[in-house]
């Protein structure tokens, strides 16, 4: 699913009105009526007070449409206008007068804290203060109103976006954001819903298709693409009945050092589990029996050094390489990495200590092969691209780095983002149970296994991240979050493939 900028959504709004020969007021009526239907289906006429807080822009206009439709269906509606400027939008004004036509209980024009209403815990709050037109942090009594709303125990439903949250810009005042329980967002979710700093303000959302011009939306380069099951299904490459292991490639895993041999075991196992035809694990000598006994399916090649890797030499042409997991930071390992980067011919995943080594020795950055996949966790990322001021700055830094060195960066976290140049792919699978040692090693194995099978680097990244998160979700269903270990993710990779083609009902998206 595409994520659009506010500018694109405003343009889509205009194109839609022109092409469908409707007015903006008609489009607002459509948008508001979808929200009404959603609420009506759940409330079934219940007389619970519904408190609608409207701004004076089009988000407030949506709130007024909803209020009018609820009143016409006999609901108990209390509407408040936060009259924070005189510049009311024309669609707001039209709906303000339409609202007054259907009831004698006109909206209350709030001018300050003295107008804030009492709200019972069982009531419902509709948040229609600000939408995507927010252009500065709410201040003064409008901020106090948001704080007042946030102290209420009533269920809070935000229209389009929680008020105070920007669709795609850094937040200056996190207190001045409505902490809603659910958001009904128009057409497509906004970028801020998926980033670590702002995502927590959107615990659940549903995107409501309000019929914006499909051809226009199709033609637009999105801000980002959301990767969920329908997209992942399309990535899958079916196996040929007559295939043999040679068709699925040979991965080389360069990982492990004394005390961190588990990183090699996890990455090697994940590479096999995700379907590589053959895997060779290259480890220091002390890792030989560990690998042979824990992953009998893999071949093992040992370094001359007992404890860490000093020479990345192979006598076969691998189809994919993953390097760095638990290799430590010895100078000789760094030299071996440099030699590898100079000679590598196949797709490569660069992780963990290999990334730290590259960050430390800037000359190595220039050796990064085109389309190399870099998989830093936040600490490694900061060392690689520099500290960022906020999530958007982080993304910008990654886009610049990716474009300059022609590499793919996977920003790992709750909604892992794959960055290739300006393109962003946001993953929707995964859970906090995966915040456990070794889960990143498993990801590197997954990526190398897909590369070995012939998935191109971008596809391997986006699909691998999706399957890794999906395996984590499946594992969490039996072990829960706390008990989950990286091995559980590996053991669920098979189910993650099966799950790809299982039918299920659409449900609200939990963040
Ligand atoms: N495009 C679509 O697809 C569709 C969009 N629709 C709806 O339109 C919404 C966007 O509407 P919108 O553009 O009128 O902006 P909105 O957020 O209501 O308010 C902006 C107003 O607030 C003001 N203001 C801003 N920040 C402020 C602050 N901190 N403190 C105080 N004031 C502040 C700003 O005025 P300013 O003072 O900056 O001149 C302006 O007056 C969108 O989210 C969706 O709900 C649907 O109806 C149909 C399809
Ligand atoms: N809260 C979370 N939600 C979803 N996925 C997560 C979460 N926390 C961590 N992960 C995933 O787990 C992996 C952790 O990687 P990393 O920190 O490199 O682990 P390690 O270095 O221990 O192997 C990443 O793929 C990341 O996206
Ligand atoms: K809102």
From TrEMBL:
Originating gene: nnrE
InterPro entries cross-referenced by the UniProt entry: Carbohydrate_kinase_pred_CS (IPR017953), CARKD (IPR000631), Nnr (IPR030677), Ribokinase-like (IPR029056), YjeF_N_dom (IPR004443), YjeF_N_dom_sf (IPR036652)
Domain YjeF C-terminal residues, every copy: 228-500
EC nos: 4.2.1.136, 5.1.99.6
Domain YjeF N-terminal: 9-218
One MF annotation (Gene Ontology) recorded for this entry: ATP binding
Gene3D superfamilies the UniProt entry points to: 3.40.1190.20, YjeF N-terminal domain (3.40.50.10260)
Metal-binding as UniProt keyword: yes
Entry's transmembrane regions: none
Cofactor note: Binds 1 potassium ion per subunit.
Single GO BP term: nicotinamide nucleotide metabolic process
Function text: Catalyzes the dehydration of the S-form of NAD(P)HX at the expense of ADP, which is converted to AMP. Together with NAD(P)HX epimerase, which catalyzes the epimerization of the S- and R-forms, the enzyme allows the repair of both epimers of NAD(P)HX, a damaged form of NAD(P)H that is a result of enzymatic or heat-dependent hydration.
Protein known as: Bifunctional NAD(P)H-hydrate repair enzyme
Residues the entry annotates as binding K(+): 59, 127, 163
Subunit structure: Homotetramer.
Cofactor: Mg(2+); K(+)
Family assignment from sequence similarity: In the N-terminal section; belongs to the NnrE/AIBP family.
Source organism phylogeny: Bacteria, Pseudomonadati, Bacteroidota, Flavobacteriia, Flavobacteriales
Reactions that this protein is recorded to catalyse: (6S)-NADPHX + ADP = AMP + phosphate + NADPH + H(+); (6R)-NADHX = (6S)-NADHX; (6R)-NADPHX = (6S)-NADPHX; (6S)-NADHX + ADP = AMP + phosphate + NADH + H(+)
Source species, domain of life: Bacteria
Annotated source species: Patiriisocius marinistellae
């Amino acid at each position: 699913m595409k994520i659009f900028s506010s500018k694109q959504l405003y343009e889509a709004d205009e194109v839609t009105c022109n092409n469908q020969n409707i007015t903006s007021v008609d489009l607002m009526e459509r948008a508001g009526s979808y929200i009404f239907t959603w609420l009506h289906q759940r409330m079934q006429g219940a007389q619970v007070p519904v408190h609608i807080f409207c701004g004076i822009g089009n988000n407030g206009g949506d709130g007024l449409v909803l209020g009018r439709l609820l009143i016409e269906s006999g609901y108990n509606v209390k509407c408040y206008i936060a009259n924070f400027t005189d510049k009311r939008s024309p669609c707001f004004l039209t709906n303000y007068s339409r609202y007054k036509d259907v009831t004698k209980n006109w909206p209350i024009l709030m001018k300050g804290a003295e107008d804030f209403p009492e709200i019972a815990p069982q009531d419902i709050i509709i948040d229609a203060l600000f939408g995507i037109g927010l252009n500065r942090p709410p201040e003064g009594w409008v901020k106090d109103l948001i704080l007042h709303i946030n102290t209420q125990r009533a269920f809070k439903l935000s229209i389009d976006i929680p008020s105070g949250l920007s669709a795609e810009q850094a937040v200056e005042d996190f207190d001045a954001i409505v902490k809603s329980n659910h958001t009904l967002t128009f057409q497509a979710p906004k970028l801020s819903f998926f980033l670590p700093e702002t995502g927590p303000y959107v615990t659940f959302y549903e995107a409501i298709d309000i019929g914006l011009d499909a051809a226009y939306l199709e033609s637009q380069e999105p801000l980002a693409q959301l990767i969920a099951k329908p997209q992942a299904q399309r990535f899958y490459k079916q196996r040929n009945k007559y295939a043999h292991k040679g068709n699925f490639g040979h991965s080389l895993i360069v990982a492990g050092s004394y005390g961190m041999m588990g990183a090699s075991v996890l990455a090697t196992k994940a590479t096999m589990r995700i379907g590589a035809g053959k895997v060779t694990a290259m480890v220091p000598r002390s890792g030989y029996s560990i690998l042979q006994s824990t992953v009998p399916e893999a071949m093992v090649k040992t370094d001359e050094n007992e404890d860490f890797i000093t020479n990345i030499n192979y006598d076969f042409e691998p189809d994919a390489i993953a390097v760095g997991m638990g290799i430590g930071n010895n100078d000789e390992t760094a030299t071996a990495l440099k030699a590898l980067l100079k000679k590598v011919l196949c797709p490569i995943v660069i992780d963990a200590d290999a990334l730290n080594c590259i960050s430390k020795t800037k000359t190595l950055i220039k050796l990064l092969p085109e389309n190399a996949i870099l998989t830093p966790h936040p600490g490694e990322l900061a060392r690689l691209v520099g500290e960022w001021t906020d999530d958007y700055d982080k993304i910008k830094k990654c886009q610049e780095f990716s474009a300059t060195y022609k590499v793919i960066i996977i920003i790992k976290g709750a909604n892992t983002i794959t960055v290739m140049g300006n393109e962003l792919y946001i993953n929707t699978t995964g859970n906090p149970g995966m915040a456990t040692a070794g889960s990143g090693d498993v990801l590197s194995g997954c990526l190398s296994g897909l590369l070995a099978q012939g998935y191109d680097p971008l596809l391997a990244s986006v699909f691998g991240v999706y399957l890794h998160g999906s395996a984590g979700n499946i594992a969490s269903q039996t072990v829960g979050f706390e008990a989950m270990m990286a091995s559980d993710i590996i053991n669920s990779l098979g189910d993650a493939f099966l799950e790809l083609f299982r039918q299920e009902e659409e449900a609200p998206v939990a963040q």
